[in-house]
Amino acid sequence: MQPTVTFASACPSELRANATLPALLDRMLGAWNFKKRFAAKRVAIKMHLGGNMGYSTIHPFLVGRVVKAVKDAGGIPFVTDSPNAVATAAARGYTAETLGCQLLPVAGAADKYIYSRRVNYRSMKTVELAGNIVDADAMIVLSHGKGHGHSGFGGAIKNIAMGCVDRNTRGRIHRLMSAAFEWDASKCSGCLLCKDNCPNSAIAFNDHKISISDHDCKYCMHCELACPKKAITIDQRGFRWFQHGMAATVNEVLKTFDKGRVLHVTALLSITPFCDCWGFTTPSIVPDIGIVASDDIVACETAALDLIKHEKFIEGSLPAPLKRSGSGHLLQQIHGKDPYIQVEECESLKMGSRKYKFVEIR
Ligand code: SF4
Ligand code: SF4
């Protein structure tokens, strides 16, 4: 049987408050039987609280509705994110008063409260899971869907893989991708043809040493082809290694919860091309869509991606130097990275199904 994805639309069917998103969200959460899932449980609400001048993370009012739904069901919720994001969350409107529950740094204030798990994937031998996630009885993965330079899309998978671990693990996952770039200093003549031919400004030289940004690189291979000395080698599998590393991490996090104790809720609102971790907000690239929810992470993420239609692209919304090119998903046209690969990798680890039943909440 296919997993269900519920959907609350941002565009109301009639002009009354009860038909708008917060009310639809309440009804949608009601459809997921919070009493059975969360009663008497400590429920981690994992979200990205943003940073610096960003104001496009999930509105505190909507977060408060989720907190209230957990409390009404007899659960004990807390909102959690990285130590820095929690420390500065009040500036962006997230406080115990506005949300209705406490905010906790996911791996403690010093980012050292962790549980280690062995994964043995390429150079990533272990992942260090955040203590406050592992200790929780249940979790709501409350994600803001937006573009992401590293993975095309940042939603539930990214929220868990990067947000439910410590800083060292995040670095380890990223290095899976940077391991794909090789540069032989002994062959390099310093002609800078690679840098000049990179259409994405992903190459820099410091002290005669190359650095390639895995965020900006789109694997076009121009640098490798342009290099007269064959000093650069790029393994295109690097992007998939990175996505698999994220999937393996998500798998370890989700395994810490009993069946039926995790719900994924992804807000497709203020869909910016960049992640909230940039600490600023740029225009939305498509109109607000709504909120999806599922207890199947693969189904939830696939539905979120399916709802971001390239036909809805808002002209003039891309900040320089971004531009659309090529085909595929809108976020692939912007970041050069297929955002569906992360869901494929999660499905390959049997975390869920890319086929789903879509139910719109009225
Ligand atoms: S592969 Fe393309 S985008 Fe990546 S560094 Fe080389 S030229 Fe730039
Ligand atoms: S094109 Fe090749 S030889 Fe020239 S600077 Fe780049 S890596 Fe070095």
Question: Describe it for me?
Answer:
The protein contains 14 helices and 16 strands. The protein is an alpha/beta fold and 362 residues long. Strands 4-3-2-7-14-15-1-16 form an 8-stranded mixed beta sheet, with helices on both faces. A two-stranded antiparallel ribbon has the order 5-6. A hairpin with a 2-residue loop joins strand 11 (203-206) and strand 12. It is globular, with a radius of gyration of 21 Å.
* Structural class based on helices, strands and sheet pairing: alpha/beta
- What is the radius of gyration? 21 Å
User: What is the string of helix and strand elements?
Assistant: EHHEHEHHEEEHEEEHHEHEEHEHEEHHHE
Report on the biggest sheet: 8 strands, mixed
* Beta-strand content: 15-25%
How many domains? Answer: 2
Strand line-up in the sheet with most strands: 4-3-2-7-14-15-1-16
**Name given to the CATH architecture of the largest domain:** 3-Layer(aba) Sandwich
- Alpha-carbon distance between the two ends: 23 Å
Sequence stretches where pLDDT stays below 50 over 5 or more residues: none
What is the share of helical residues?
25-40%
3D shape: globular
CATH class of the largest domain: Alpha Beta
The number of helices is 14
**How many DSSP-defined strands?**
16
Name the average pLDDT: 96
* Assembly annotation: single chain
Q: Could you please say which CATH topology of the largest domain applies here?
A: Rossmann fold
Task: Give the distinct bound molecules.
Answer: iron/sulfur cluster
